[in-house]
Give the backbone structure.
Amino acid sequence: MTHVIVVYASKHGSTHEIADAIGAELVGAGLTADVVDAKEVRHLEADAVVIGSAVYMGRWRREAKHVLSRQAETLRAIPFWIFSTGPVGDPEAETEDAERWLEPAHIVDLATELGVRGHVVFGGSLTDAQGSMQRMMAKNMPEEFRDRRDWDEIRAWARGVATELGAPVGS
């Protein structure tokens, strides 16, 4: 059975929740999956890997970036995918410049060099329970734009990964 490690780097838990949903979808497709905090990764002993990170100010979290760079040899040899999380707020108000804040070009370039199979940016979540800056942002943002995670999109992407790994279509 194909074993996938889903690695995540999350500051407030939103990216962790996305990683859990991806792992559950992979298991539902008949694969085995472990969801692991990037801080805990020493070796990637798996048939495939998914790495995800929250993006802040155009940067992946350090621990996710370290997994990508320190596990380069392993990642070159197996299928892997990456995802970024982060955008909140009114999507209609985003400018063309916003993309540079959402997709760290150096991370995408490194992953491409290593043979990444795919990369996606998922919406993020901003709740009142986070730090003072996040609370202030959330207070000034309409509630419908505070959580832009699209769970159907996340599950569909994970099913695509499972299909690429040979899971039965429609599982």
Q: What stands out?
A: Residues 128 and 135 are 5 Å apart (CA to CA). The beta strands are 3-9, 32-37, 48-56, 59-60, 80-85, 119-122. Confidence is low (pLDDT under 50) at residues 88-95.
